[in-house]
UniProtKB/TrEMBL annotation:
Classification lineage: Eukaryota, Viridiplantae, Streptophyta, Embryophyta, Tracheophyta
Comment, domains: Histidine-containing phosphotransfer domain (HPt) contains an active histidine that mediates the phosphotransfer.
GO cellular component: cytosol; nucleus
InterPro entries named in the record: AHP1-5/YPD1 (IPR045871), HPT_dom_sf (IPR036641)
Keyword tags: Cytokinin signaling pathway, Two-component regulatory system
BP GO annotations: cytokinin-activated signaling pathway; phosphorelay signal transduction system
Keyword Mitochondrion found: no
Localization terms from the record: Cytoplasm, Cytosol; Nucleus
Domain of life (superkingdom): Eukaryota
SUPFAM superfamilies tied to this protein: Histidine-containing phosphotransfer domain, HPT domain (SSF47226)
Chief location bin: cytoplasm
Name the UniProt record assigns to this protein: Histidine-containing phosphotransfer protein
Length: 87
């Protein structure tokens, strides 16, 4: 009984996040995968995202420390982080 109430509260909360534009349809797709099919797959997707972004941020940090900063390269790296975050 309590579990069904909590599930309902969670569903309402997630719907409110969607209504406010904080999450999108892709979030629901991933949430559905987690709930119905392969919870480990979702964890792997998140882990890969963090590894990718950490690598890009590390490269970004090393480029900033150079005496002759190539701003086009910094922009490209920032765009990669943005791109991965959208997925």
């Amino acid at each position: 009984m309590a579990l069904s109430i909590l599930k309902g509260l969670l569903q309402g909360y997630v719907q409110s996040l969607f209504d406010e534009g904080i999450v999108d349809d892709q979030f629901f797709q991933i949430h559905t995968l987690k709930s119905e099919e392969e919870p480990e797959h979702v964890v792997q997707l998140i882990d890969k995202y963090f590894v990718d972004v950490e690598t890009i941020l590390s490269e970004l940090t090393s480029k900033i420390d150079c005496p002759d900063v190539d701003f086009s390269k910094l922009s490209e790296l920032a765009h990669k982080v943005d791109e991965r975050s959208l997925r």
